[in-house]
Specification:
Blueprint lengths: L6 H16 L7 H12 L4 H13 L4 H13 L5 H48 L14 H44 L11 H15 L10 E9 L2 H8 L1 H18 L5 E4 L4 E9 L1 H17 L16 E7 L6 H17 L5 E3 L3
Parallel strand pairs: 4-5
Antiparallel strand pairs: 1-3, 1-4, 2-3
The structure holds guanosine-5'-triphosphate.
């Protein structure tokens, strides 16, 4: 994604985009900035038509729709777009800021020159003119000088106003920068895949475990279950085909998760090539059935590289499943599921292992 506009135009576009963004249910993060920036920048774009259509039907853009729009219209052109968007925004705001600071600096220097000129002119008007100057009998400064003084004063006033405007712009830019930073920190969406990220996952896990405390017990009871999963030999994929293609594989796996995991279960990307699924209330058998479905779907998928007929080698997943027991802390549950995952790796990968109790 590029931001080809001048700093003035970019500022204006961001100014238009901000209020629109804040009305949506999707959080403010670089992905929504990118969508709304593109929305205001090109009034005839297909993205804008789709956003308008969506708004007319649903009233506001949620997280998932924002991510879809982003991937459909903005991300395809560039595999590392999210980072670019963040970086682009950072540079854009930095550029705007530098521009405003430079203009302010120049303005204030010009203002000083004008002040000095005004003082000199006033002095000249007070009788500092040489005796042969065109002063009238009462010693008033000549008309031309009066006019020059009036212009100079007017310019001083204009300069002061301009400086005020630039100071306001600077404040707005600082605020924007602050918001981008906050949005980045508060983001709950993984930029690469559009799945909930680790932060979102941790929050939900904490909430589900608290809600389950004191709930049903017994061997058949439904409880929170956790699946931790990790792509097998993923380093080889990166090494053999490059990091951008590795990213494409991660997105493909995320799509499988999105398609297979249904509410109220939550699928998230919790690390580089690690994903997790939380089932808020399930039996071990149900959790294992979902794990096996995910394993088999990923193993059965074929990933092709652009311009290559033959698919690459099979992508596989190893999974660890753990059932929560009452009173267990979230970290302990994750730890058990992780250990089961490593058991699955050690046993040959492309399989599911169950955690010890
Ligand atoms: N393309 C891409 N690669 C990533 C990303 N995050 C982590 N990785 C890569 O994932 C790989 C993980 O490698 P390892 O931890 O050695 O594990 P592995 O090769 O998958 O092997 P096993 O887990 O033992 O099966 C490293 O090469 C990381 O660079 C990402 O966002 N994009």
């Amino acid at each position: 994604m590029q931001y080809p506009h001048t700093p003035e135009r970019s500022t204006e576009l961001l100014r238009q985009a901000l209020p629109l963004m804040s009305r949506q249910s999707a959080a403010l993060h670089p992905m929504s900035y990118a969508v709304w920036y593109a929305y205001v920048a090109d009034t005839a774009s297909p993205l804008r038509l789709e956003v308008d259509h969506h708004l007319a039907q649903r009233g506001s853009l949620d997280e998932a729709t924002t991510a879809q729009l982003f991937h459909r219209y903005l991300a395809e052109h560039d595999p590392q777009t999210m980072q670019r968007v963040s970086e682009g925004l950072r540079q854009l705001i930095g550029g705007m800021s530098a521009h405003a600071a430079l203009a302010k600096d120049q303005t204030s220097r010009y203002g000083l020159t004008l002040e000095r000129m005004a003082a000199e002119l006033a002095e000249a008007g007070d009788g500092g003119l040489p005796p042969d100057a065109d002063a009238d009998a009462a010693g008033h400064p000549p008309a031309m000088l009066e006019e020059l003084m009036a212009h100079t004063r007017q310019m001083q006033t204009d300069m002061a106003r301009l400086q005020q405007r630039l100071a306001d712009s600077q404040r707005e830019i600082d605020q924007l920068r602050h918001e981008v930073q906050r949005a980045r920190e508060e983001s709950q969406v993984d930029a690469l895949t559009g799945l909930p990220n680790r932060r979102a996952f941790d929050r939900r896990l904490g909430a589900e475990l608290s809600a389950s405390a004191g709930g049903a017990s017994g061997a058949d009871a439904r409880r929170p279950c956790l699946l931790m999963m990790d792509l097998d030999h993923f380093k080889r994929i990166n090494d053999n085909y490059g990091h951008p293609f590795g990213d494409q594989v991660l997105r493909a796996v995320a799509q499988v998760l999105q398609a297979v995991v249904r509410e109220p279960a939550l699928a998230a990307r919790v690390g580089g090539e690690e994903f997790a699924v939380l089932l808020p209330a399930a039996t071990l058998d149900e959790a294992l059935a979902l794990a096996e479905k995910l394993r088999a779907t990923v193993a059965g998928s074929r990933v092709r590289r652009k311009g290559h007929e033959a698919p690459i080698e099979r992508i596989t997943l190893s999974l660890g499943a753990a059932v929560w027991h009452a009173g267990e802390a979230p970290e302990a549950l994750i730890d058990r599921a992780d250990r089961a995952l490593y058991t699955a790796k050690a046993a040959g990968r492309d399989r599911v292992a169950v955690a010890d109790h």
